[in-house]
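Exercise: predict the fold of this chain.
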Amino acid sequence: MMSRSRSVLFVATVAALVAGCSSQAAPPPVGKGRPHSGPAFDQAPAATATAPTPVAAPVAPAPAPTGGHPCDAARLQLPPDSVVARLDGKDVLAKDLGPEAVRAESQALRTYCDTIAQIRDGALENLVDERLIDKAAAADGIDGQAWLRREVDKAIEQPTDEEVASFYEQNKSDTAPPLEAVREQVVAAIVQERQQGAARKLLERLRTEAAVERMLPDVRMPPPDLSDTPSTAGFGPKDAAVHVVEFSDFECPYCARAAAPIADLKKKFGDRVRFSFRHFPLSFHPNARPAAEAAQCAVAQDKFWQFHDAVFARSSELGGGGIRAAAEEAGLDMAKLDACLSAGEAAKQVDEDMAKAQEAGVSGTPSFFLDGRPFEGSPADLESAIAAKLQG
């Protein structure tokens, strides 16, 4: 029997598909509705899909001050000339606290208002889903749990041996136990993933057939300006209907794993979506910053995406010449690369991306933004969110 410690190592690898590299310890963000969760190999598999947990209807917020944004009602702003202390008899004013304190307060306010909006939106989404399920179940004379279980079970198939082996190979770590030792858990994970997909499609169908009129006030702060700079690498037209921005770290394993599904989304949506890549190299990844600067030099040679793919293909081996090897593989002119790096412009561009990331509240990678708003979820969730945006 496989030990729990070995199982957890394998679980962590699979769960990483919806995780990320973090620059600080922080609680997980509140997701929209029922968040996607990765397969849990050390837990008992769920035999069936379950209906949403009932929640109370959201309470409408108090009206915002006239002429202001709803979030401004929560701003505990100090007038600049407020006396906040006295030192040796001399006044210390609020404006003396410095621009960093102002920036931190602004970010804290954005985080608070965004979290309140996510909580209310999630509660409303769950409530709508629950009532739509109950309505459909009542027409068949059964309860919501039984109806959802029946409909989801009809929509999924048990994985084949080839699918099980493929899933295992795609998600295993170097220390993962043999497939036969975790076959049942792998099958359960695939089934769970299919259940989630089937339930998502089912709820989307129910929503299209119902008259759902949302009147929940939007208390979020206005989104930060994440427009491309002249040096931002992007895919798709700049005037596309939807704009996806990714803040990434070339040495982050989660970013490397996200590259393939994001590439699939680029192919799927074509010129309807603009994908922009921006840098947020984390301090504990020593090769991430040099790779980011080299990537900006690749932009100057119009070979960013070739370099992007070559770096992520060896993201765990960037030290000891790995970055230059990726540059050569991408077809960069090495003399021009060296000259670009020496000039320092690429370093400034990476600094600009990091400043923009901090303004937007990025604390880990990969971090995605959809039309300026932070997006939490898996690539499958991102696909659904993009599709919904395109449908209006």
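Check your answer against the key: The first strand starts at residue 21 and ends at 22.
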